[in-house]
Amino acid sequence: MNQYVIADPKLCIGCNTCMASCSQEHQLHGLQSAPRLQVMRNRLDSAPVMCHQCEDAPCAQVCPVNAITRQDEAIHLNESLCVSCKLCGIACPFGAITFSGSSPLDIPHNCNTSKALPAPRAPRAVSPFLDCVPGLRAVAVKCDLCSFSPDGPACIKTCPTQAITLVTASLAEHSSQQKRLNAMNAFPDGYSTFTMPDAGAK
Questions:
Q1: What do you get for the CA distance between the two ends of the chain, in Å?
Q2: pLDDT digits (tens, 9 = 90+) for 127-179
Q3: b or e along 73-88 (b: 16 or more beta carbons within 10 Å of the residue's beta carbon)?
Q4: Burial of 91 (0-12, 13-18, 19+ CB in 10 A)
Q5: Distance between CA 147 and CA 153 in Å, rounded?
Q6: d(C-alpha 105, C-alpha 147), whole Å
Q7: CA nearest to 2, candidates 57, 55, 66, 49
Q8: Which of 20, 77, 164, 173 yields a CA-CA distance of 20 to 30 A from 32?
Q9: DSSP H helices in the chain
Q10: Can you say whether residue 82 is alpha, beta or left, with left for phi > 0 and alpha for psi between -120 and 50 degrees?
Q11: φ, ψ at 39 (rounded to 5°)
Q12: Pairwise CA distance, residues 61 & 67, whole Å
């Protein structure tokens, strides 16, 4: 199975530290600075939502340039290969893929010259899937478990309440065994099996 990151809403305090550290860590390695997780809130709880590292990975199946592949027990996205088609974001059932802008380093933002008409202002943002800014290339971003870092995901390291956990195959197997034991202990002796009553019995 693939490794993935989960968060406990009972421990999360909605401080957005995970998002800030994710953004900074990827920017330091020359990747898009957009955070790979998003803290969601309701009236009572908060928790970051991120890539589920799906076994069948619908995003990888629809990518026309094979920019999304399975490596080191996780689903990785090569930003250099992305062609901005946004199919991966449409295919993702969890909304875990977003898009960040990338512009050439040699062209200043909103540059103007006396020999040409002023550059048009960027239109108001509507949606990552609908926005189109002249001179700006949309690049898909998703959680890569900070595979470039020997210390693991930055969100786990910086969470002040330790609400975020990396789930590995061994940890998932241990949890599954514990659930089976708990289910067996929930029934007293002689009541470990459940039998449906006969519909014809009176």
A1: 49
A2: 878 887 767 788 999 999 998 888 889 999 999 999 999 988 776 666 667 77
A3: ebbbbebeebeeebbb
A4: middle
A5: 8
A6: 26
A7: 55
A8: 164
A9: 17-28, 58-62, 87-91, 154-158, 169-185
A10: beta
A11: -75, 120
A12: 10
Q: What is the token pair recorded at 31?
A: 């990747």
Nearest to 181 by CA among 169, 173, 190: 173
Q: For residue 137, how many C-alpha atoms fall within 13 Å in the half-sphere facing its CB?
A: 13
Helices assigned H by DSSP within 68-168: 87-91, 154-158
**Nearest alpha carbon to residue 152 among 14, 22, 19:** 22
Nearest by Cα to 63 from 76, 49, 73: 76
**What is d(CA 89, CA 127) in angstroms, rounded to the nearest whole number?**
12
Q: Is the pTM of this model over 0.90?
A: no
| DSSP helix/strand/coil, 18 | helix
Distance CA 46, CA 12 (A): 6
Most confident of 2-6, 35-39, 127-131: 35-39
